[in-house]
Specification:
The protein is of the alpha/beta class and 413 residues long. Helix content is 31%, strand content 13%. Strand 3, helix 1 and strand 4 form a beta-alpha-beta unit. The longest helix is centred in the C-terminal third of the chain and has 20 residues. This is Lipoprotein.
Length: 413
Amino acid sequence: MVALAVGAVALAGCADDGSGAESGAHGAKKPPGAPAPKTAVRLIGDGSTAFTGQQPNLPRPERLRPGQKPPQFVVFSWDGAGEDSQKLFSHFRKVAKRNNTTMTYFLSGVYLLPESKRKLYKPPQHLAGASDIGFNDRRGIKDTVEQLRGAWLEGNEIGTHFNGHFCGAGRGVGEWSVKDWKSEIRQAKSFVKAWKTNTGRSGAKPLPFDYDRELIGARTPCLEGRTNFMRAARELGFRYDTSGVNNQLWPKKKRGLWDLSMQLVPVPGRGFETLTMDYNFMVNQSGSTSQGDPDKHEYWGDQMRDGLLKGFRRAYEGNRAPLVIGNHFESWNGGAYMRAIEETIERVCTKRQVRCVSFRQLADWLDAQDPKVLARLSGLGVGEAPKEGWRAFLSARPAPAPKGVPGAEPAKR
C-alpha cells in the first residue's frame, strides 16, 4: 500500500460527580443477560458487504440524571485507515481492546481499489484515475478488509476520508461544489460495496455492515471544503462532521450536523496551542520534513503526549467537553506520534468516568440528551467547571427523551 497521506493543514486524577452515581469507564451497560443477536447474514450487491443486524458492542446511550456530572468523552480517530506493512491498524485495535476503547476509522475509499482498476475512480475536477495518495494492491486490500471487519465487530465506527485526498489551490477539495462532494461520497461508498468484484475475490467473507447505513460522518482532506461538504452530507443523511477547528467546548449542531470539530490543545514549552493531530505537532516541531533530528524524536513524542494530556485534564477537571483527537497510521519522526497516542490512550481511557468512544457513539449520546442540558453545558468556557458544582448546575430534571431518540424509555408492552 502507498504511504498514508497527510490529513490536516498546519496551524499555528479521579473526580467524583457529586451525584452519588457510580459511572464506570464506559458508562452505559448492556442489559444483563441479554443474548447475542442471531440474525441471518443478508448479502448486499456482489457480497462485498452484508447486513448482519445491529452492530455488536455498542452501549445504549443514557440521558443524564438531575445533578449528574457528564462523563468525559474522548474520541480517537484515524484518517485514511488502511492496513499496510507497518501493521498499525491491527496494532491499535489491540491497544483499544486492552484499554476498553472504541474508535473511528475514516477509510479512504481508494484503499479498497486496486491500481489496475484506478480508472474506475473519476474524481471531481480531475482526470479519471488521478489520486494524490495512490491506490492499493490485492494484498493490501485483503489486509485492510480484514481489519475493517474486525474493527466493526468490536464496536468501532467505519467513517470515510473520501478518496483521492486532493488539497490546496487548483481543483482541491476546497474548491468542490455540493455536486462534486456528492459524487465523491457516492464513489467512496461504491469502492467499499464492490471490493470483491474489483479484486476478483468472490469467495472472501463480506464486510459485516451495510455501508449506506454505517456511513454517518467524515473528516475532509486537510480540513478543506467543509461548507459544501456539509451541505451535501446533510442532504445524504450524515449526522456529524469533524472537519473544523474549535476550542475545547461542548458540541453544537451546525447546518443540521453535530459539529465535532478538531480541537486546539497546549503545546508544552511553547506559547501557543495546536490541533490534536500528529501532523500539526510534527509541523511545529520539524517543519516540512517528517524525518527530523533523531535526537529530538523522544522529546517530540513526549511533547505531543503531554499536550494531549493537558487538554484532557483541562476538560476532565473543567467543563467536561468531549476531547477530539485525530491521527494517521504513520511513522513520522521515528514513530514519535504513534507512541504518544498509545501512551495517551493508556493513561486516560481507564480513568473513572471517562469514555473513549467513536464519533457515532458520541453523536448517539448527544442525541439522547435534553437540549436544555446541552445548552447549559455549551455555555461553559474552556476548562470552566460550574462554580456551584455539577449537582447544582444540572439540578433541574431533564425532559424525557422523545420516542425513537436514543436514550428514550423503551415502549411498555
